[in-house]
UniProtKB/TrEMBL annotation:
<keyword id="KW-0732">Signal</keyword>
<dbReference type="InterPro" id="IPR001320">
    <property type="entry name" value="Iontro_rcpt_C"/>
</dbReference>
<keyword id="KW-1133">Transmembrane helix</keyword>
<keyword id="KW-0472">Membrane</keyword>
<dbReference type="InterPro" id="IPR052192">
    <property type="entry name" value="Insect_Ionotropic_Sensory_Rcpt"/>
</dbReference>
<feature type="transmembrane region" description="Helical">
    <location>
        <begin position="353"/>
        <end position="376"/>
    </location>
</feature>
<keyword id="KW-0812">Transmembrane</keyword>
<dbReference type="GO" id="GO:0005886">
    <property type="term" value="C:plasma membrane"/>
</dbReference>
<dbReference type="GO" id="GO:0015276">
    <property type="term" value="F:ligand-gated monoatomic ion channel activity"/>
</dbReference>
<dbReference type="GO" id="GO:0050906">
    <property type="term" value="P:detection of stimulus involved in sensory perception"/>
</dbReference>
<comment type="similarity">
    <text>Belongs to the glutamate-gated ion channel (TC 1.A.10.1) family.</text>
</comment>
<protein>
    <submittedName>
        <fullName>Glutamate receptor ionotropic, delta-2</fullName>
    </submittedName>
</protein>
<keyword id="KW-1003">Cell membrane</keyword>
<feature type="signal peptide">
    <location>
        <begin position="1"/>
        <end position="19"/>
    </location>
</feature>
<keyword id="KW-0325">Glycoprotein</keyword>
<dbReference type="Pfam" id="PF00060">
    <property type="entry name" value="Lig_chan"/>
</dbReference>
<feature type="domain" description="Ionotropic glutamate receptor C-terminal">
    <location>
        <begin position="361"/>
        <end position="627"/>
    </location>
</feature>
Length: 652
């Protein structure tokens, strides 16, 4: 949204009654801006005093010539130290939702006072949800005294912090003077520039002077995020970044495009030294610590607020920070919170013989077997009652009756595809055929599943979501880098996150021990993606890295990345990070291992186990063989006892 903000500052050097004469050329210039150059703009008026004759004349004359009413009209209230809307006013939220493309704001200042400028900033141009934006909208400052024009344009209270601005003043004869400020034209310092009041229709009164910083040295405060940026102390000199993806961003892109140099320093801590934090708002609502009457600003946000830094680099944006400083709309880097676990181990167990079917299926098979015994018994009994059990049959015949023992061995041996004695009567043989077909289907499925289970054992199931992680038997560690992530988790009302905060271990420092625990036991490491990437490239061997498993991202990430990639067609962030991790982190780690004779970590190894069939794959068959031997011994003993009893009975 473009805005023309026009401030008029009068010290009344002319006699009363001449206000209309003085403002004639200013009125003509403003009407030209509103009608011919920016016709889509809304008209705003803010006056320091409702008694200003010159300001009232300028207001009424512009409104009459434009034949419209102002969209915003306010007068500064000394008692309230704020702007008081009096007519045609709308709420800020309404303007942010349905306001015009730009706004022409006329601000009449009777006396140059800092409290008035601060009131204007607080009322219509705060950092959070501004009605008029200091870095995007147009500002015009008007004063009848040419000697005060430069001081007004360079005032730190508000004018110097506006990007697009003009200064208007008048000569004693009433001619219009127009000036602007080139922020860095004077070897990186501000310089006043004169414009002609009679510019051509295509002349741009609001050029972007921040496209070329003219070699200015920017003071940049950064948070202690080694995964993205490292600067060696004592943080002196220009272009002093040591390594990191952000160093590549500055050296290979921003410095070339904007023509500047920089000095980076670690953000301020609570003791006044280098702390490395992003910024923490104190309970009293400020970002400042008073150390023996010496104000210290906390973190990167505090450094920017205090003016100690021109630019700040931090990892996370929060609502509290948004209310104090402005952030770039474009995100160069994408960082997620995720957790890392080790690969699931292969499971070798005699219970593999039962894994082909679930409990319900095994129950159904058992019930079907009992049902088969019952049906065979009912058919046999019915034939015996009806007296049709002595008819001659075809096929396998047997003199003795096909009793319960034969039925038992027939049903059980059919599962093992073993030869068995068939029934001698047609009704029994019909049911036996249907039973054999049922057994064929069941055993075929069982054998097919057993091939994959024995040759390729199942892997241990690892958690892939936060809910699964907190409900598992994994120990959870959280690498605490700053307070933003921890504050977000602690403020969540989701049951999974609430349980996560209660059970997780807080790990400070660089967090390497968290990844080491992952490879040693059932442990999950919760951290930023950039932290885990930096730790693994800088400390772990390639074989150890392949043992780690990252929880899958949300289902929306790929779709959003595909759309965002159109806006980031060159993927410079990904390229910078890959180059930094390989050249300045991984290769440096390998060189150090070579220098310290740790060559064992350089061996190429495959973390995946061999797929060759071993005893562990078919151990269940041997356990089954052992169980059959025990069962045979029991049957042998039973038969021996039975024969002995019969033999002794015959002898007796």
């Amino acid at each position: 949204m473009w805005v023309i903000l026009i401030l008029t500052c009068f010290h009344h050097p002319f006699p009363m009654g001449e206000g209309s004469v003085i403002t004639t050329k200013a009125e003509t210039f403003l009407v030209d801006l509103a009608v011919h150059r920016y016709p889509e703009c809304a008209l705003f008026f803010v006056r320091q005093s409702g008694e200003s004759e010159i300001g009232n004349n300028l207001l009424s004359s512009v409104v009459k010539r434009l034949k419209t009413s102002p969209s915003y009209n306010a007068v500064y209230s000394t008692s309230l130290s704020n702007l008081s809307s009096i007519k045609f006013s709308t709420e800020v939220t309404n303007w942010n939702r349905r306001g015009h493309i730009c706004k022409i704001i006329v601000i009449v200042v009777d006396h140059f006072r800092s409290d008035f400028l601060q009131g204007v900033k607080r009322s219509i141009s705060p950092t959070y949800l501004p009605m008029v934006k200091k870095d995007l909208d147009y500002w015009i400052w008007i004063t009848p005294q040419p000697s005060q024009l430069e001081n007004l344009l360079l005032s730190n209270y508000l004018p110097a912090k506006t990007k697009y601005k003009l200064g208007l003043s008048f000569t004693p004869s009433g001619d219009l003077i127009i000036k602007s400020v080139c922020f860095f034209c004077n070897e990186g310092l501000p310089q006043i520039i004169d414009f002609s009041p009679e510019g051509t229709p295509s002349f741009n009164y609001f050029p972007d002077f921040v496209r070329n910083l003219m070699g200015k040295t920017l003071r940049i405060s950064f948070s202690a995020i080694k995964a993205r940026l490292e600067v060696n102390p004592p943080y002196v000199g220009v272009n002093n970044a040591h390594r990191g993806m952000l160093k590549a961003l500055f050296h290979e892109f921003l410095m070339i495009k904007l023509n500047f140099t920089y000095n980076m320093f670690l953000s301020t801590g609570t003791d006044g030294g280098y702390g490395g934090g992003s910024g923490l708002q104190l309970p009293n609502g400020t970002w400042i610590v008073d150390l023996l009457d010496d104000f210290t600003f906390l973190g990167t946000v505090g450094d920017v607020i205090s003016g100690k830094a021109d630019v700040g680099i931090l990892a996370v944006n929060t609502v509290d920070r948004n209310r104090e400083v402005s952030f770039t709309n474009s995100n160069f880097d994408r960082v997620y919170l995720h957790f890392v676990t080790a690969r699931g181990a292969r499971i070798f167990s005699p219970a593999t013989l039962l894994w082909s079917f679930d409990f319900v299926m095994w129950t159904c098979i058992g019930a079907s077997t009992l049902l088969a015994f019952t049906v065979f018994k009912l058919i046999s009994k019915s034939m015996e009652v009806l007296g049709i059990d002595n008819t001659e049959t075809r096929g396998v015949t047997r003199k003795e009756n096909w009793g319960i023992r034969h039925q038992l061995f027939f049903v059980m041996s059919s599962y093992l595809h073993q030869a068995c004695v068939l029934p001698t009567y047609t009704p029994l043989r019909c049911f036996a055929a249907k039973w054999l077909f049922f057994v064929l289907v069941v055993t075929t499925v069982y054998r097919s599943k057993m091939v994959s289970l024995l040759a390729f054992p199942v892997m241990e199931k690892i958690p892939t979501t936060i809910a699964e992680l907190v409900d598992s038997d994994y120990t959870i560690g959280f690498i605490k880098h700053g307070d933003a992530a921890m504050s977000m988790l602690a403020a969540s009302t989701d049951p999974a996150y609430m349980k996560l905060v209660k059970v997780m271990e807080i790990i400070t420092g660089n967090g390497l021990e968290c990844l080491e625990r992952v490879m040693e036991r059932k442990y999950a490491c919760f951290a930023y993606t950039m932290a885990t990437n930096y730790l693994q490239y800088g400390n772990l061997s390639d074989s150890d890295i392949r043992k780690l498993v990252y929880a899958p991202e949300k289902i929306f990430v790929d779709a959003f990345d595909a759309c965002l990639s159109w806006a980031r067609p060159f993927h410079l962030g990904d390229l910078f990070e890959a180059h930094d991790m390989q050249v300045t982190v991984r290769l440096a780690k390998r060189a150090w291992w070579m220098a310290t004779n740790q060559t064992d970590k350089l061996e190429h190894s495959d973390p995946d186990e061999s797929d060759d069939l071993t005893l562990k794959h078919i151990a269940g068959a041997f356990y089954g063989l052992g169980a059959c031997l025990v069962f045979c011994c029991v049957v042998f003993v039973q038969e021996l006892v039975a024969v002995t009893i019969v033999y002794n009975g015959v002898l007796g």
